[in-house]
């Protein structure tokens, strides 16, 4: 596979940044429309940072049984996020100088995880989480190792943090230990990942732009 950046357009990497910004905007708007109800209290009003998962915004009905007016915006936000990150995962191998099969792994697993995540609003939510999580974990670990080998220390450190907090999510979810704080940890995880993806995207954009100017 040819990883040469000669004919690539670095402007394509503006798409992930725009998509992530739109995701944040629409998910906040969706949360503002959420009528209320959580797994802890069906009578709770509005979207709770401490008690509601972001996935609650995708459901057709809330925990109190009423229609969920936030679902369309939340699903749009999810589509935008997965679509824009698909672009990032496609180009991400170009960040690295060392060629090898690991670059194929990064691209294929990263894109696959995003495509599978699109089905979060289906009735197979837990299955989607497990499959996308496993494939995404492979993409993450491969990327983190490549970052370490090529001296991207800050991106490597943030990647390790994201990996650790992701594993913490899974541990809490499976063990039930401290399960009441998981909704809050989930949101911290999202913010951390978006920050990491944004920095990866910026670093890649700068490299591709520099390479294009040199050529």
Automatic annotation (TrEMBL):
Q: Which domain of life is it from?
A: Bacteria
Q: State if Transcription is listed as a keyword.
A: no
Q: Which residues cross the membrane?
A: 12-34, 73-92, 104-121, 127-148, 155-173, 185-205
Record bears the keyword Transmembrane: yes
Identify this protein by name: DUF998 domain-containing protein
Organism in which the protein naturally occurs: Sediminicola luteus
Keywords recorded for this protein, A-Z: Membrane, Transmembrane, Transmembrane helix
